[in-house]
Design goal:
By secondary structure, this protein is an alpha/beta fold. The protein is built from 5 helices and 5 strands, in the order E-H-E-H-E-H-H-H-E-E. A 5-stranded mixed beta sheet has the order 3-2-1-5-4, with helices on both faces. Helix 2 links the parallel strand 2 and strand 3. The longest helix has 15 residues.
Amino acid sequence: MSDIPFDTARRHVLGLGCERGTAPAEMLALAIAALEAAGIGGAELAAIASIDSRRHEPAILAVAEHFAVPALFFDAPRLEEETQRLKNPSEIVFARVGCHGVAESAALAAIGRDAELLLGKIKSAHATAAVARIGLQKA
């Protein structure tokens, strides 16, 4: 679990994955679509999360800036620990980055064992997004 503060309003994490060089506009549109599909607003986000190899990716940083939340990054072995909880594990993603999912895994990893996946991975042409939330008992 990360050190991000959760409260009754901000109890969600948006997990993001993308190809290098993904346009910030594409990523932001996908992020907004993910929040809409999850039935939450940007004010309910506590953080954005992704894989550490995307730490400097402009598209991910733009989303964090847009929602004014921290961006958290996890290495592939940490993300792989979340595989059993993924809705959409991928052998293709594992072959490329060393874990079976980025968006779902990162969202879950940011919260920790009390996380639940609210929205499984959705895709755009070059990116993925998923939403996790901390369980009500911890909010």
